[in-house]
Amino acid sequence: MSTGIEPWVTQAIDVAPQLPIVVDDPVAQRFQVHRSAMTSPEIHRAEVERIFGKSWLYVGHESEIPKPGDFVRRPVGGRPIFMVRGVKTGNVNVFHNTCTHRGALVCRQDSGNSKVFQCFYHAWTFDSEGRLKGVPDRDAYAGGVNFDDLGLKRVARAESYRGFVFASFDPDIDDLPTYLAGAKDYIDLVVDGCGGSVEMARGTNQYSFGANWKLLVENSFDGYHAESTHDTYFKYLVSIGTDLRGGVSGRAVDLGNGHAVIEYSSPWGRPVAKWEPLFGADAHTEIDRLRADLVARHGEQRAHAMSEVNRNLLIYPNLIINDIMAVTVRTFYPPAPDTVDVTAWALAPSNEPASLRHRRLDSFLTFLGPGGFATPDDLEALESCQQGFASGGVEWNDISRGMGRSPSANDEEQMRVFWRRWQHQMGAAADRAGAQ
Amino acid sequence: MAWQQQVLLRQQVEEFLYAEAALLDAWVLDDWLLLFDEDAKYEVPCNDAPDGDPATDLMLIDDNYVRLAARVTRLNSRRAHREYPHSRTNHQVFNVRVQDVSAEELSVTASFTVWRFRAGRTSCYVGQYRYRLRQGHSGFRIAAKRVELDMTDLRSVGDVAIIL
Hints:
The complex is a heterodimer of chains A (436) and B (164).
Chain A: H1 7-14, E1 19-20, E2 22-25, E3 30-34, H2 36-39, H3 41-50, E4 57-61, E5 70-76, E6 79-85, E7 92-96, E8 111-113, E9 116-118, E10 125-127, E11 132-134, E12 157-161, E13 164-168, H4 176-180, H5 183-193, E14 198-200, E15 205-209, H6 213-220, H7 226-229, H8 231-239, E16 250-256, E17 259-265, H9 281-307, E18 309-315, E19 319-323, E20 327-336, E21 339-349, H10 354-368, H11 375-391, E22 396-398, H12 413-426, E23 431-432
Antiparallel strand pairs in A: 1-23, 2-3, 3-22, 4-13, 5-6, 5-8, 6-7, 9-10, 10-11, 12-13, 14-21, 15-21, 16-17, 17-18, 18-19, 19-20, 20-21
Helix pairs in contact in A: 5-9
Chain B: H1 3-25, H2 29-33, E1 36-45, E2 59-63, H3 65-76, E3 88-101, E4 105-118, E5 121-136, E6 139-149
Parallel strand pairs in B: 1-6
Antiparallel strand pairs in B: 1-2, 3-4, 4-5, 5-6
């Protein structure tokens, strides 16, 4: 093709009529997703460009780099990126991790503190604001090279909200607050519930699994699967004395721009700020004090939402903030249609009392961690779905649960919110080319 | 301690670790649990914080005896979906060193590889064991088993659903 357009796009436009991959039928109250969305290499290539190339993607949290020169490096949208707090400005700088000379990584440690980033290949040296400060044997270059233009390349856009740093490779994307839309209020609930200042605990969960990334989106706020998939986890909770009889009841909320949340009553204790006997008598006073403080600052209604209500929040397309018995910040990227790389952190209030921090971390690893009693079974479920797709015979996933009623937390409205946005962003690339 | 005694002690420790590995590979987890004292810990720090302290750092696993017993109950059930049916595993123990001997406990380090095979997939965990062992009437008892992974992340293995 000489058009510069990927062949799949051209094909999708040429062949008519097109049938969409996401079928949203409010009259019949039926919502279906064609399974090629999870298996097709063409769809995956289009997602890399249209979804991950044109969304705000989570980079990290400002608390990870508190001091000038602090940096972390990690892949964002599949690309090596690093963020560093500028020594001169104190700003969070987000750079493409590549030397402007001939390409090598300039940040080669996962985290640390440095005033300069030197490419070891030819020793070009950049400062923490990205300026090119050192070029060995500079006189060898003729006048055509302007070293001021050869500073580290910033990602097209980088902004943060409540300390959550996002980047986008799309220079024309909406500013971050506009993009986050209704999700802002839920980030506020998490951060304000933590007293307004949060940090990531040391220790990162980095794991992968063999299924499509959108299955993890669905799974991360799927109330319907909990009882069947996580039977062993809930049995464990009951065995150590947690009273689950209160149950989980709640609702799903469309937050705009593909973001959605389920919020529901918490039968288990929460370090902010719902005591249960398992926490021990000493923690009772501490949690009562935390809760009273939240009431004083935010009023009873909001303090209740912070303390006794769980929320599983999707920031479209690939950031999950689940504020349940601990808070996980989880992001993921698909290097292939059937592979997902997950990175997750435990978010906690800065200056959290030691006993509550320990309790929080304990709850995190038991439910949310890859060595716990639940996450491995989620991975098994998602891989099992992917394997089931390969069987063929069934073309569609059904995501209709709860259509035609006010969506409860155990319904699938939050997933439909994601899928509608996905369909919109994918455009013609989410049509089944050659369909009858 | 005379070197003959040191060698003998190390051989006894090795025998014990091999026996433990055999119980895990045979999935006789109830018997494996019997090796632990009731104040025992089983810990696996995160890959990027191998010196992690469960009080302040996120861990992959931080089991006291109660949770370790629950882990065994879970893995014995048919509802630990990731491990039903069970993986085939091969726990291999090398470089066993008795680091310190007190009246009550031995500190032991060892290198390990744990191979896991399931549904056509091969995974391999590599790292170091740190044990605290106690001498009982009928051999050693485990007071602590800490598993520090050398892999920089869990991407190649997916999870830690098996016991390492």
